[in-house]
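Reply to thread "Modeling small-molecule complexes from scratch"

Following up on the discussion above, here's a worked example others can learn from. I took a protein sequence and the SMILES for 2-acetamido-2-deoxy-beta-D-glucopyranose and predicted the complex. Inputs first:
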Amino acid sequence: MMMFWWFLALLLGPVDIYRAHECDVFTYLDLYHAIIGTSLYVKLLLYTRANLTCGQELSHHNLSAQPQFNLTKPTTFVVHGYRPTGAPPNWLNNIIEQLLARGDMNVLVVDWNRGAANINYLKVVTYSRDTADNLTAFIRNMQENGASLSSIHMIGLSLGAHITGFVGAKFNGKIGRITAVDPAGPQFNGKPPEDRLDPTDAQFVDVVHTDMDAFGFRKPLGHIDFYANGGADQPGCPLTILSGSGYFKCDHQRSVLLYLGSLNRTCNIRAFPCTSYTDFLDGLCMDCDQFKPAGCPVFGYDIIEWKESLVPLQQTKAFFTTNKQTPYCKTSYWVDIVTWNRDTRWGYITIKLHNGSEVTEATINHKASSFKKYSETRLLAQFEKDLQKVHKISIKFSRVNAFKPKYKLRVLRIRLTHLERKDRSVFRHILFPLKCHLFSTWHLFFYFSLSCC
Ligand SMILES: *[C@@H]1O[C@H](CO)[C@@H](O)[C@H](O)[C@H]1NC(C)=O
Ligand SMILES: *[C@@H]1O[C@H](CO)[C@@H](O)[C@H](O)[C@H]1NC(C)=O
Ligand SMILES: *[C@@H]1O[C@H](CO)[C@@H](O)[C@H](O)[C@H]1NC(C)=O
Ligand SMILES: *[C@@H]1O[C@H](CO)[C@@H](O)[C@H](O)[C@H]1NC(C)=O
Ligand SMILES: *[C@@H]1O[C@H](CO)[C@@H](O)[C@H](O)[C@H]1NC(C)=O
Ligand SMILES: *[C@@H]1O[C@H](CO)[C@@H](O)[C@H](O)[C@H]1NC(C)=O
């Protein structure tokens, strides 16, 4: 029997029979490899809609050897970054499946784990140049076989973001799109454009920053740079080293989770073009008239829809805040308050929205707000959830200085305007003082409940 199979295999060509059902996988390494160091090997794994979970290694030189690689379809490269432990990235399967759910394309995972797994980061930085040269040769080969540069999208994570930039520069920015997911900072901050990613590297370059005070890059690198929660510290991430390794990577990895959330359309995160995060929090940048009719840019995969309006602007910084876990998107309201205290009051506002089944809260405390008699104070309130049919609002007013005597904030009028959906806005005239008593009881008025401390 064995002989028969051997004979058949020889007749039909042994490799083909087995290759068709075998999957090629991302290189698995461990800390041992990282310590002794690895030398560069660039493995290209192709994923298509024919089988979302089964990768096929491509030949760098003979593209027709893999018939699934159809060059008339768009190609998305996914380029990982530094891998200090050698383990495969845990987001890999997720991003492959989500990309293929979005479009019929070739997803090419650039596995340069041999090279990226090395405790010597400086060595890995030099390999990132070699990886870029290798990919450049491969893309030239694709071009010779009929692929267009416009149909190429490269998604680079961390160090991988600069690799995509180096490749893009070799093609004089003719590659369709580069997405940089928290591009690496160390060894790249402060470098001239040719030594890092920059907006001239592709027709459209979009970037998200989540850890610019540690592993990420500080300055803008693309046509649009999203700074999630200001770009440095992410909600829900440990603030001290006592929390273990999460302290080091949580902020940096959040960029990937946010990007995956945009791919699977968990929720749309609107971002607001602004010069600084503080100005954004102060509500100074809520006007997106220049992007009419699309409105403020939506973070992530779909930002390509704003390409025509963003590219002429050359460089745009955009800000948003997120929740500490998925779904990450927040819901923004304008809060306009008119008060009638004789003297100007300073304090922090906390607002709760109730709709009978759920409650959501927003605290405006990045700086003290001032309330002047009969003039409207406009605040930006960002809630965790988007509640339907809000029928009760609670407000808490806290003084700036807890040692000063207590005082009341006398509210004359309050208006909550949903930034996205005007039908979810709430407006009330109230002639009821927000008393400033610690532990005060809840006051109900119309369908408002007022409380303060
Ligand atoms: C790219 O790297 C692969 C594996 O490391 C190698 O086989 C291939 O020849 C390289 N391509 C070029 C153009 O050097
Ligand atoms: C994808 O490939 C895997 C491994 O060969 C196989 O088990 C699975 O059935 C394939 N799925 C489809 C939809 O072909
Ligand atoms: C490329 O691969 C195809 C399919 O396996 C094969 O027929 C062809 O001879 C190869 N070409 C070269 C130059 O090796
Ligand atoms: C390649 O993709 C194009 C566009 O989706 C399609 O029309 C064509 O049939 C595909 N070719 C092969 C060999 O599958
Ligand atoms: C979408 O991706 C996020 C990762 O950011 C994940 O937490 C969430 O469960 C995914 N949702 C769906 C519906 O797949
Ligand atoms: C409250 O809002 C949530 C989220 O929009 C919604 O699912 C729920 O049905 C609402 N409850 C009521 C009673 O309207």
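What I'd highlight from this example: Residues 331-450 form a domain with the Lipoxygenase-1 fold (CATH 2.60.60.20). Residues 41-42, 60, 134, 137 surround 2-acetamido-2-deoxy-beta-D-glucopyranose (ligand 1) (CB under 6 Å). Questions welcome below.
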